[in-house]
Amino acid sequence: MLKLANITVKFGAFEALKNINFEVNEGELVVLLGANGAGKSTIFNTISGLNKVSDGDIQFNSKSVRGQSPDRIVRSGIVQCAEGRKLFPDMSVQENLMMGGFIHRRHKTQLKQSLHEVYELFPILMDKKDDPARSLSGGQQQMLAIGRALMAKPKLIMMDEPSIGLAPLIVEQMFSVIQEINRNGTTVLLAEQNANAALKIANRGYVIENGIVVLQGNSHELFNNDAIRKAYIGA
After folding, report:
1. Contact, 189 vs 157, CB < 8 A?
2. pLDDT per position as a tens digit, 35-48
3. DSSP for 14-78?
4. How many Å apart are CA 214 and CA 62, to the nearest integer?
């Protein structure tokens, strides 16, 4: 479904991504593991069209999306749930969700159905639909960020550090929801530092260090890799 071939991204003289190669098959849940600053968000922003590609190609469903505008990439079916949630704090929960469905604004029935599906997935958002986003707890804000991304009806959703800053119990619930989203038919690309939780739900993974893919494998192989356990799992 998604293929990055020899992707290089430069910011001035700094090479942020160096010859990145990886792919995500339809229906998979794939995790990008790496420390803060490894290049995971840069990869996501590049796929989303926010960063300019210096070399290489990005293909989605066998068509190149390199150089396309971010809104066109969203229309093609790739949606990013950004690190730090990036909500509209003074807008209500429902207004935030409707902003996520902006590209489908002319299809009122579909928007209504999408809203219903998000509220089914996150019932607490229904209870707080008229409250401003800033009044929500950290976990609820993350639910809203994911819900807003789902309103665009993505074929592939990219989630950037969804567990960051959340209590362990909420993290467990969040990963359960991500697994459910994947089971319901949405392909998931997940960027995480929490390797322990991510590898429990992922099919495969790639390890990113200093803008380079240094390791790849299925979740079992990565979980049992001594270097990975030492660096990211603490065992």
Report:
1. yes
2. 888 999 999 999 99
3. EEEEEEEEEEE-TT-EEEEE--TTSSHHHHHHHHTTSS--SEEEEEETTEE-TT--HHHHHHHTE
4. 25
The C-alpha atoms of residue 2 and residue 186 are separated, in whole angstroms, by 13
Helices (H), the chain: 40-47, 70-76, 93-100, 108-121, 123-127, 138-150, 168-183, 195-201, 219-223, 226-228
Name the one residue in this structure whose structure tokens are 């469903």: 61
Q: Tell me, what amino acid is at 151?
A: M
Q: Rounded CA gap, 196 and 84, in Å? A: 21
pTM of the predicted model as reported, rounded to 2 decimal places:
0.91
**Tokens at 167, concatenated:** 């209590």
Place of tokens 């976990």: 139
Geometric angle at alpha carbon 178, from 177 and 182, rounded to 5°: 115
Token couple for 97: 């969700």
Share of the chain above pLDDT 70, in %: 99
